[in-house]
Amino acid sequence: MTTSNLKLRDGETDNADTILEDRVLVARICWYYFKEGQTQEAISQRLNMTRKRVNRILGLARESGFVQITITDPAGQRTKLEAELAARYGLMQAIVVPTPMTDPDVRSFLGAAAANYVAERLPADGSLGITWGGTINAAAQNLRPRQGQNTKVVLLCGGLAESAPINPYDNAAMIARALGARCYYLTAPMFVDDAAFRDLIVDSEPVRSVLAMVPSLDMALLSAIDLSEQSKVLEYNVISRKTWTSLRAAGAVGDICGHYLDRRGKRVDHPLSRRTINPPWDHIHRIKHRVLAAGGLQKVAIIRAALLAGLCHVLVTDENAAEKLLIG
Fold first, then answer.
1. Which residues pair with 276 in a beta bridge?
2. What are the two backbone dihedrals, phi and then psi, of residue 191, each rounded to the nearest 5 degrees?
3. How far apart are CA 133 and CA 114, in angstroms?
4. CA–CA separation, 231 vs 74, rounded Å?
């Protein structure tokens, strides 16, 4: 599809400026139709246009090659929300994907967008640190395979003592396989019983050597763990409701890589933090290229906290969350 001959209305050819706006619209319609499987009638109601026009745009998208195996939005970072987010929080880039029309779970869409970004930006001999969660799992499933490159994947958290639908070790292994990379695990639980035992584990050679890699990583793909009622840490029994309640009482809105933050992006002093096996705060800040992939309205508070704390250079989120992040 070229910017000189796309016709969105019968008998009219748009100029370049109009095309830019319409290409964003085309990408949105294609996402809803091909990625989410929404009907043309549902899309027409959502976007307040006729079903005939939706059908025509989809037809043009297919004929022009705009729709291939995946949907590519050529407007990318030039969209209004992305530009405003980047300016507001001093980001290198913001990537905003459409919020699903019916399903509040945005993790699969964010993961796909994050995977595409990592595939394009991670050097052939680069090192990638990852945290855990459903968005990271979705990214692992969407990474384009590559082989024969000297890539390293480093897991930035310990494992879970109890099996869960989203396992940190599984995420790391999947990403390493996709990238043809060597994988380095923190061979320890995510949390331990007390701070003294935590220090002993961190000082042990297998854990110490992996944590020592963190400051020199080329890129980190981070997730945001919220402390809302919908939080997966409750659903997966990662922490108890008693601990969840005490974290909230201490002012925490969630965590990034095991560091609990309040609404202003300040770290919260809590006993769980002192029992968590994770990289030091300053080591995370020294990672060259930090990408935070997180969305959904329940995560807005922890995403904003991470942005205020300067924890990411690139944010991958959804439209609804992006709009909330720009308020206040």
1. 191
2. -130, 155
3. 13
4. 33
The answer to whether 291 and 109 are in contact (CB under 8 A) is no
Q: Side chain identity at 125, as an amino acid letter?
A: D
Instruction: List, in sequence order, every residue forming a beta bridge with 128; answer none if it has no partner.
Output: 153, 219
SS3 track for 8-39: CCCCCCCCHHHHHHHHHHHHHHHHHHHHCCCC
Among candidate residues 226, 224, 278, 223, the one with its CA nearest the CA of residue 247: 226
Cα separation, 191 vs 160, in Å, equals 8
Strands 225-226 and 254-256: antiparallel
State the chain's maximal CA–CA distance in angstroms. Answer: 74
E strand intervals along the chain: 93-97, 127-130, 152-155, 182-184, 219-222, 225-226, 254-256, 259-261, 290-293, 314-318
pTM of this structure = 0.78
Residue 191: helix, strand or coil by DSSP? strand
Reduce the DSSP state of residue 316 to 3 states and report it: strand
Q: What is the pLDDT along the chain (328 residues), one digit of tens a residue?
A: 333 344 444 444 443 334 335 777 888 888 888 878 888 888 998 888 898 888 888 888 776 666 664 445 544 434 789 999 999 999 999 999 988 877 778 999 999 999 999 999 999 899 999 999 999 999 999 998 888 778 999 999 999 876 566 789 999 999 999 999 999 999 999 999 999 999 999 999 999 999 999 999 999 999 999 999 999 999 888 999 999 999 999 999 999 999 999 999 999 999 999 999 999 999 999 999 999 999 999 999 999 999 999 999 999 999 999 999 999 6
Q: From the CB of residue 52, how many other CB atoms can be counted at a distance below 10 Å?
A: 11
